[in-house]
Amino acid sequence: MSRAILQHRRFISLEGGEGAGKTSAIAAIREQLQRSGGEIVLTREPGGTPLAEQLRALLLGKHEEILVPEAELLMMFAARAQHVRNVIQPALQRGAWVISDRFTDSSYAYQGAGRGLDLSLLETLEQNVVGLRPGLTLLLDLDVREGRARTAGRDLWPDRIESERDDFFERVREGFRRRAAAEPERFRVIDAAQTPQAVAADVGGAVRAWMEAAEA
Ligand SMILES: Nc1ncnc2c1ncn2[C@@H]1O[C@H](COP(=O)(O)OP(=O)(O)O)[C@@H](O)[C@H]1O
Ligand SMILES: [Mg+2]
């Protein structure tokens, strides 16, 4: 029998493609959460713990040997298991807000929609290995080429996943949008093509509304 997936109100994730503005959006989220006065934990995936960051280096590094999709998937979930058990759950248990730059939705988008791995395998891993979902997920949705243009300046050496072709990233984008459409209560889709100020205002507004709804 599979375990239920717990959704936690103080757990917020940021999702979207390369260059969509996830990392830039964290400041706007933090600004809202600071009003509550509580502890805020900022973290990211893949990674978030020392061991999981080592897996990140393996996942994003380039190797002579091809990393097969199934191994990529399991390494992502191995890193996530460390992250959930050693960082996210303890933080939530002591009452902190947790913001994660990417979480399980990225696996559905990249390893599921992008690599074409079986969704039922992902669901099994999410239920049995992760067991936790954010209360709120902000999807920064952006045209693939626009995202690539933005990261071109940032990444002199694109990592292993960033080096994929545009059709891969089109499938990833569609994968994210399908998940958002399937779970409208959890997702807020933000138009990431706007100016940084407008994106920050939308992100901040979504988080403020989320906090107010939780207090009511
Ligand atoms: N709304 C925006 N308009 C234009 N450029 C942006 C916007 N948001 C972020 N950027 C720039 O695009 C690049 C990628 O942003 P980043 O936040 O690192 O994206 P991600 O974390 O989603 O890959 C950065 O150089 C950032 O300054
Ligand atoms: Mg980033």
UniProtKB/TrEMBL annotation:
GO biological process annotation, one example: dTDP biosynthetic process
Stretches assigned to the Thymidylate kinase-like domain: 14-202
PROSITE patterns reported in the protein's UniProt record: THYMIDYLATE_KINASE
Xref: Pfam families: Thymidylate_kin
Residues passing through the membrane, by range: none
Catalytic activity: dTMP + ATP = dTDP + ADP
Key word Kinase present: yes
EC identifiers of the protein: 2.7.4.9
Record function comment: Phosphorylation of dTMP to form dTDP in both de novo and salvage pathways of dTTP synthesis.
Cellular component per GO, a single term: cytosol
Protein name, UniProt field: Thymidylate kinase
Family listed: Belongs to the thymidylate kinase family.
NCBIfam families reported in the protein's UniProt record: DTMP_kinase
Gene3D superfamilies linked: P-loop containing nucleotide triphosphate hydrolases
Molecular function per GO: ATP binding; dTMP kinase activity
Annotated binding of ATP, by residue: 16-23
Keyword tags: ATP-binding, Kinase, Nucleotide biosynthesis, Nucleotide-binding, Transferase
Domain of life: Bacteria
Organism, scientific name: Pseudoxanthomonas composti
